[in-house]
Amino acid sequence: MNPEIDDKKTAINKMMDTIKHRGPNSSGEYTNDEVALGFRRLSIIDLTGGMQPIYNEDHSRAITFNGEIYNYQEIREELIQAGHVFTTKSDTEVLLHGYEEYGMDGLLQKVRGMFGFMIWDDNIKTLFGARDFFGIKPLYYYQDGQELIVGSEIKSFLAYPGFVKELNMTAVKPYLMNQYNDLNETFFKGVHKFPAGNWFSFKDGQMDINQYWDASYVENSLSFEETVERIQDSIEESVALHNIADVPVGSFLSEGIDSSYVTSVLKPEKVFSIGFDDRTFDEVKNARDLAKLKNFEFYEDRVSGAEAFRDFPEMQYHMDEPDANPSVVPLWYLTKLARKHVTVALSGEGADELFAGYVNYGMHTHSSVIKVFTAGLKKLPKGIKGKLARGVRKLSDFHGKVNFYTNLAEPSEYFVGQSVIYDMNYPTVFTAKDANDILQPTYRNKLTTNLLYKKDFVKVKDADAVKQMQYIDLHHFLVNDILQKADKISMAHSLELRVPYLDRKVAELANSIPTSYLMNSHDTKYALREASKSVLPASWSNRPKLGFPVPVKEWLHDEQYYKQIRELFAEPFVNDIFDQEKVLQLLDDNYHGDGSKRRQVWTVFTFLTWYKLYFVDYENTVKKYQRIQPEVEELQEQGLLVNT
């Protein structure tokens, strides 16, 4: 056998071993003189016949695919009519024959689903790949001359012979501002996130990237009543498609409208919820009440601070990059709980970005003072509004200043997405100046959160203010934070998480809804709330957005956790990146004070936890965490996890 292929087989299998949590059922690889494809499978559809890679009729083309195509059955029938011969009943094979029949652009205009896939076409010696519309499934790439590495998780790149692991120093400051990495380049220098809604071809060392989908905003002329009916129809259709599987499908359930609407439409047998020992943060009771009302089989668990701090390093290991969103913690235990009972779970991600659920979209609509002036302000010429905005910004603070300013200025001048969290009107995260102030000089730069959005604001400059902000959150917060943690944390437990709101048909409808229907002076997600009343009590539909509340403030005021974090902050490597005295002072001030700096402390704590795992003690990290989760191993031992 060709020794080069032997080396490829060894390398690709070593890389696959690092992500076996993503596919505990089986593995497979394809190698030749030019390419090596590897795959770990979590069996969802065609349990016995869908092993990958899958080949076309003459084995001249091969595919590996992560995700699900929800409308694969109808496309399969079209392809059979066109003469294609199928050897499996899987959605994977539909993508391969669809590429042969329609080409990449044609195929991607037909599918509905979440995916990251690669096709090797040996006839033209070209590798093709694509990432889904919203970036539900992760896809990374690294190019070194003629060599290209592509994968679902960065940790697999670290197992590739010759890959040089180096920290991307530029990413640290924007991470502190956003609590996640919002750059295209990851924390690992040279490794990039492949953009959502795009596909690529790679041949002779040249990578060409092509966009096939993006959100666009052209308002429809439907009445409000017609809009509500259309939302109901689209959600019902999407949930039905997301329920297609050859394994049990459950659902996450919190007290919020997003998951409760999806769950009530799905009518699953089993639903799951998580809470904390600190009863101040308790979504479980209300979720339990809804489950009882709907006759769902309800499973719940509670998390203690001791458990959270014990498992937090493992969470950050699976994230690949540091993510300081505290909701990582409850999501870890929620997916762990669900995996004991189901292989697939539905969740409510994407509703806020599509149906205008974030409070800061409407910050300028809730002030009684501003309501009197809003109509007149909006009629002013753009140039005059801009001058007035700059004047208001220079004034001393007064009640309503923010509301006046945001009614006059363009969103591109003031919007910083979901990166700023306010507690008693004081920002609790790092400004650009704050971040530079605690970093060593080599880590400082001029990046600001708003600057990272400039290019995307240009694309939607003609849309109204709310839709501009929705577009930014869709392309930043959603894809780089919300969906990253949803995929990485669920797949760490070998659980497939499906998100029915993030269907292209649902999105195209949502993006065409007039902003006045999406939100008003009383509610965010107004049209969605009205639509949900078809399956939810009105009192439930009108619940305010809470997110995933986590008792970080209480934890950081607990002496044992404070001491644990301080021990980390005091380690010698910390001073290489941060002004160590300042981060220790930040921690102490928060502990002895009112806790208003807790998100800053948590953001630094998260980064240092992650950095220690990947750059200080990586050998021990791999030994400790490179495995499938115990609950998955237990299912295998009991014969309850299908091996194909």
Report on the architecture of this protein:
The chain has 644 residues and is of the alpha+beta class. The protein folds into four domains: 209 residues, Glutamine Phosphoribosylpyrophosphate, subunit 1, domain 1 (4-Layer Sandwich), CATH 3.60.20; 181 residues, 3-Layer(aba) Sandwich (Rossmann fold); 114 residues, no CATH class; 85 residues, no CATH class. It has 29 helices and 18 strands. The strands form five sheets. The chain has a six-stranded antiparallel sheet, with helices on one face. A five-stranded parallel sheet has the order 14-13-12-15-18, sandwiched between helices. Strand 3 and strand 4 form a beta hairpin. Helix 6 packs antiparallel against helix 19, helix 9 packs across helix 27 and helix 12 runs parallel beside helix 14. The chain is globular and about 75 Å long. The two termini are 27 Å apart. The N terminus is likely disordered. Belongs to the asparagine synthetase family. It catalyses: L-aspartate + L-glutamine + ATP + H2O = L-asparagine + L-glutamate + AMP + diphosphate + H(+).
